[in-house]
Amino acid sequence: MRLLPELVLVCLESTLVSENNLLAIKSLSVSFGGLKALDDVAIEVKPNSVVALIGPNGAGKTTLFNAISGLVTPDSGQLHYDGNQIPWPKSHELVNYKIARTLQGVGLFSGLSVVENVMMGADTHRKSNFIKDLIGISSRDEYELRELAMQALAWASAAHLADFEPKQLTYPDSKKVSLARALVMKPRLLLLDEPAAGLGQDDIDKLAKLIFDLKRNCSILIVEHHIDFISKISDQVYVLNFGKVIASGTFEEVKREPAVLDAYLGTQQNSIDKNELRVL
Ligand SMILES: Nc1ncnc2c1ncn2[C@@H]1O[C@H](COP(=O)(O)OP(=O)(O)OP(=O)(O)O)[C@@H](O)[C@H]1O
Ligand SMILES: [Mg+2]
To answer: Residue whose CA is closest, atom 11 of ligand 1?
Structure first.
């Protein structure tokens, strides 16, 4: 996938690179009944960086995304965004912060075409009026929104799918469309939950290139089990296990941490092949 200059231009208007973290989470705890899904978690995401959240199944990765995006209510914790402490956002407020996310599954609306699904990503919680009141650009009409959605589809290598129904898509193609739906709001912070799951190597390589391009203008917090992919794209890695951060640093640093090896393999080794970290 080649670097598209338009992508750089449209993201620039929504990105103010500050010296501070774009996102900082402190002391985040979330529980479901008696289960502590997140326990005193702290993470930081710098502007124009790719931060990976890895860890075994059930570690709390998606729960952390859900806390940021208003789908679960934290027991405690603080959220700093762009240098200011803010309340944990409700999901309909994410568009104001230019925070976009993809779901661990695909989550496309079956009654809409692909391009209409992507248009919805501009403001999913104002469906009745979303064209008129698109992410603060009130003068945009439906034609312009459609053009924007087509651009987002092109970034995700999915423009040729615009008129398809979601049910006609292959799984890898539906992942591309869900990514386009997140990109259409020109996010400053993009939360990607297992974007490479179910993709072949060719599509994973294209995704890595796209993330590299996006990083020029956005920060990306990514959950992924494909460890080789994470090793290539991430600037910083946090490893979660049973709701706690057990290691953080560069991929090269965390992959040697005994606690990380224990979490993945249940045993300590002196060195490890990156592919062996894949969760089975
Ligand atoms: N809505 C919920 N109600 C009850 N328990 C939940 C809920 N959501 C998550 N959990 C539990 O919280 C823990 C963390 O789940 P989470 O989905 O965040 O894990 P994960 O790291 O994303 O795992 P995976 O890699 O399998 O996607 C798990 O034990 C899970 O069963
Ligand atoms: Mg998950």
So the answer is: 37
Structure tokens at 261: 């090896």
Q: What is the CATH number of domain 99-186?
A: 3.40.50.300
Substitution candidate for ligand 1 out of 28, 29, 32, 102 with most atoms within 8 A of CB? 32
One-letter amino acid at 151 equals Q
Cβ distance 222 to 192 under 8 Å? Answer: yes
Which residues, 6 or more positions from 137, have their beta carbon under 8 angstroms from its beta carbon?
Answer: none
Q: Map out the domains of the chain as residue ranges.
A: 1-96+193-200+221-280, 99-186
Q: Which two tokens stand for residue 179?
A: 């990514």
What does the pLDDT look like over 136-187, one tens digit per residue?
A: 545 556 788 899 999 999 999 999 999 999 999 999 999 999 999 999 999 9
* 1-96+193-200+221-280 and 99-186 have identical folds: yes
Q: How many CA atoms lie within 13 A of 263 on its CB side?
A: 25
What is the Cα–Cα distance from 229 to 104, expressed in whole angstroms? 17
Tell me the C-alpha distance between 162 and 36, whole Å.
Answer: 42
pTM of the model: 0.85
**Closest alpha carbon to 76 in 136, 119, 36:** 36
Instruction: Tell me which fold the domain 1-96+193-200+221-280 belongs to.
Output: Rossmann fold (3.40.50)
